[in-house]
């Protein structure tokens, strides 16, 4: 695989950063064409059902080699700047999910082509601690634990040998790399808004308003406040674990709080629920709940919950609130 193809497939790579630096590109001074491409990218984030179609189009563009490499590579870092100015967790999650899925798509293509040089290259980029021997790819357990992947990654101790975790097949390896990549993408960056152009700030505000509008449309099910036993399975599990005093991951805490706020639970009710956490901090919890209520964050769809390992069963719907709506219709008959 040539350098052009690698860089466009994996714009988050260290090699992409090095290319931008070598060309002395100012990512804060970008053309309107690039801004339009960034706007188009953010429009795709919630269209999960069409992800593979988008990736297929990207693949055709790569083969044509007509894409301006410099314009294309600044899209990723500038998008992260926009996300940092917007400060919207669901939007950042959608951005990370999109690139995580795109990575898996292209990595699988590389496997099909048996392009092992590229596979090893991107593997080392995402996880430098990874090594390979005659038994396959592996990472020292201590280094894996240091990645702090939390509940995102279910560690398979059955693959532990001599202090190393081995990946017995490409599916295990791909899943691991995708989770490591997502964590890397979700790292926030410090942004001084005074250094940003009016055009970039204007696009940030446009993207924010568009995302909030779409989310409200997607999850506006006019739900009657459900009783605790009527929660969708994913949130029922999190709620039960919380009441049992179990410590939840940050992302699980966030999605459960958004759900409770969205279906009609008051600030006091949600705060009292979180008092069961073993690491409860009223000041921090209160601030986060108020922020969720003020921003009116929408409940994530099933695809997002699944990508965060929070889905517990296939309920036959695309959004958990659809289950509540079905239950309301059933009860009204």
List key phrases describing it:
4 strands, 3 domains, mainly alpha, 17 helices, 333 residues
Structural description of this entry:
The protein has helices at 3-9, 14-22, 32-44, 51-64, 69-73, 75-86, 89-112, 116-126, 141-146, 170-185, 198-219, 233-243, 250-262, 267-274, 282-295, 302-307, 320-332, and strands spanning 131-133, 136-140, 160-161, 164-166. It is mainly α and 333 residues long. Strand 3 (160-161) and strand 4 form a beta hairpin. Helix 3 (32-44) packs across helix 6, helix 6 (75-86) packs across helix 11 and helix 7 packs antiparallel against helix 10. The protein is globular, with a radius of gyration of 21 Å. The mean pLDDT is 86.
Q: Helix coverage percent of residues?
A: 55-70%
Which radius of gyration do the C-alpha atoms yield? 21 Å
Classify the beta-strand content into a percent band.
Answer: under 5%
Main β-sheet description: 4 strands, antiparallel
Provide a quick synopsis of the model.
By secondary structure, the protein is mainly alpha-helical.
Topology, element by element:
Elements: H1 3-9, H2 14-22, H3 32-44, H4 51-64, H5 69-73, H6 75-86, H7 89-112, H8 116-126, E1 131-133, E2 136-140, H9 141-146, E3 160-161, E4 164-166, H10 170-185, H11 198-219, H12 233-243, H13 250-262, H14 267-274, H15 282-295, H16 302-307, H17 320-332
Antiparallel strand pairs: 1-2, 2-4, 3-4
């Amino acid at each position: 695989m040539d350098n052009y193809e690698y860089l466009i497939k994996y714009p988050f790579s260290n090699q992409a950063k090095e290319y931008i630096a070598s060309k002395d590109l100012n990512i804060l001074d970008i053309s309107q064409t690039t801004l339009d491409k960034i706007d188009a990218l953010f429009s795709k984030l919630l269209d999960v059902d069409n992800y593979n179609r988008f990736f297929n189009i990207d693949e055709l563009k790569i083969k044509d080699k007509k894409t301006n490499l410099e314009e294309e590579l600044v899209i990723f870092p500038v998008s992260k700047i926009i996300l940092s100015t917007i400060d919207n967790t669901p939007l950042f999650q959608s951005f990370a999910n999109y690139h995580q899925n795109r990575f898996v798509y292209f990595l699988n293509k590389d496997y099909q082509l048996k392009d092992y040089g590229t596979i090893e290259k991107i593997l080392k980029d995402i996880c430098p601690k990874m090594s390979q021997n005659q038994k396959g790819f592996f990472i020292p357990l201590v280094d894996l634990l240091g990645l702090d992947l939390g509940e995102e990654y279910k560690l398979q101790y059955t693959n532990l040998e001599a202090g190393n975790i081995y990946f017995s097949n490409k599916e295990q390896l791909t899943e691991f790399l995708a989770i490591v990549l997502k964590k890397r993408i979700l790292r926030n960056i410090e942004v001084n808004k005074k250094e940003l152009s009016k055009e970039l700030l204007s696009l940030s505000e446009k993207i924010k308003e568009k995302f909030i509008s779409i989310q409200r449309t997607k999850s506006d099910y006019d739900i009657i406040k459900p009783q605790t036993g009527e929660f969708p399975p994913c949130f029922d599990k999190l709620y039960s674990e919380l009441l049992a005093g179990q410590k939840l991951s940050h992302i699980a805490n966030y999605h459960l709080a958004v759900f409770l706020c969205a279906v009609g639970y008051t600030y006091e009710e949600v705060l009292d629920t979180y008092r069961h956490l073993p690491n409860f901090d009223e000041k921090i919890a209160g601030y986060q709940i108020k922020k969720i209520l003020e921003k009116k964050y929408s409940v994530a769809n099933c695809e997002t919950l699944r990508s965060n390992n929070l889905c517990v069963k296939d309920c036959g719907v695309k959004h958990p609130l659809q289950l509540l709506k079905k239950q309301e219709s059933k009860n009204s008959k």
